[in-house]
Each structure stands twice: as structure tokens, then as C-alpha cells.
Amino acid sequence: MELYGRIRLRHLTCFVAVAHERHVGRAAERLHLSQPAVTKTINELELLAGMKLLDRGRHGAVPTAAGERFLDHAERVVQAFDTAVAGLAGAGESEHTTVRIGALPSAASVLLPEVLGELRAQHPELDVRLRTATNTELLAALRAGDVDVMIGRMSDPDTMAGLSFELLYAEALAFVVRPGHPLVGTRATFPAMCEYPLVVGVAGTVPRHHTDVLLRRHGLELPPGTVETLDVAVAAAYTRESDAVWVAPERVPGRDIADGRLARLPVDTVGTAETIGVIRSAAAASAIVDDVAALLRRAGHGTVGT
């Protein structure tokens, strides 16, 4: 019980920063403190805890087993404090607040039109800065503090260190064409689809990886005339006006399919499902980010506006 009166918020803040950065120097830069000050604070925390919480060496700092257990609780405390402070600051400020949202282009086209409308209804004075990019670029921006919250895919454990992922939905690939396309109404095969130009994601993205794997499974490669793009609007327009076959996450062309402007081919894409979720950093915790995450959660489950 004595620990409750001796462990301070500064101990938790330093510990969380070092655990996230895996490096005392980078944590010090993030906290705008000197490296000796951070080291001293961590030493104090470990002395109070009576156990080693971080393995520190020339190559960085990694939480011990006890540190990993402690980290989950420490993150919650730091995030709750940051959220409370942000709420107080927001209540007393009259100037515009800005939230920076990062999103995969495919997820942005599915979720954000409705979410932005609901967000404006809740916060009429809120400025929104939207950034679309690849998952790797967005994760780097989130870790650097250049975006406050993102819609993306889970990455490897090292990249996700210090970040939280909340599942919104999972989706497989869809092969989509214009109504009246020669393949509509047929049992479209992969060789038959590759007789037409394909529209696919750019190299290095998960949908593109699944596309390549799917084609190789059938002994095929991307055909000549393939268009690689992250731009959903361009891909949709090109597909509507040509004989191209668009390979996209299945929710992306959903509105066009429902409106009869595109048609989905009955192609087996088992094994291409990928999760989409809200990714956040405790360092960017705020009441506004909580509201954005809640709206994305509702949109992911199809309940925005209901």
C-alpha cells in the first residue's frame, strides 16, 4: 500500500515513454527531458517497485516480464490523465481544435464520408486534417505524432509497440467490373480475367500482396496493361468506363455495386481476408480522438446515423 503514496505520474510517464520507444534517449526527446533525468526517474521507479521493470543496455530498453504487466496499467493511467487534461483545456478554449486522421485510401472511402458528417454534428468548430497513405507510412506518422488516430491494418509486434488496435471489420478481395462487361453472367476464371487489364493496389500493400498470391496460386502473373493505384476514385471511374477488372477490398466498391454502377464477379477469394481497425497511441489521447474512435467503431459495424 505504501507504493500508492510514493509512485508519481512522472514515474509512469517516463516508464511508458521508454517502453514505447524501446530506448531511453528517444524517450527523453519525446518527453523534452534530458536522458539523465529519464534514467534517474526510471531508477527511482524500479527502486520503489522493488524489481527490475526494464532491461537496459547498449541496444535499447525492453520491458521485463514484470514490466510488461505493469505497462498495461501504467498506459491506462497516463492516457486517462492526458484525456482529462485535454478535456479541461478544450472546455476553456474558444479557438478551433484540430484532429488529424490518417486512413488507408480504401478504408477512408468506406468509413469517413458518414463519420465526418457525424463528427461535424458533434463538434461544429472542429477542423479535420485527413491524410491517406499506405499502412507503413501511416504507422510511422502515428508514432511520430503527425496524426492523432488512424484507420489501418495490424502490423508486426515491433511496429505496433506502444499502439493499440481495435478491430472494426475484416474484408476479403473482390473482383469488380462494369455492368455489361463480357465476364458478367459467366463463370469467370482467373485466366479469363487476366485477358483484361487489371486494376490493383500498389506494391507493398496488403491487398496487392493478396492479389499476387491469389494469381500465383492459379499459375498466373499480372497481365500487361495492369494499373497500380491507391486512388479509389480513379480506380472506380476507370473500371466503370472500360473493360478493366478491379481487384479491391470488398467494401470499397460496395456503394457502386449497390447502385448498379459496378458488378462483382463470382470469384473465390478465400484466404484474402484482412482486418481493418482503429489504431491509436496513448501519447495522442484526447476527448476528440475518443469521439473519432467511437464514430469509426459505429461505422465499422454499420450503425453510424442510426
UniProtKB/TrEMBL annotation:
Record-linked InterPro entries: HTH-type_LysR_regulators (IPR050950), LysR_HTH_N (IPR000847), LysR_subst-bd (IPR005119), WH-like_DNA-bd_sf (IPR036388), WH_DNA-bd_sf (IPR036390)
Gene3D superfamilies (alphabetical): Periplasmic binding protein-like II (3.40.190.10), Winged helix-like DNA-binding domain superfamily/Winged helix DNA-binding domain (1.10.10.10)
UniProt KW keywords: DNA-binding, Transcription, Transcription regulation
Domain HTH lysR-type: start-end pairs: 7-64
Transmembrane segments: none
Domain of life of the source: Bacteria
Keyword Cytoplasm attributed: no
Family: Belongs to the LysR transcriptional regulatory family.
Name the UniProt record assigns to this protein: LysR substrate-binding domain-containing protein
Organism field: Rhodococcus artemisiae
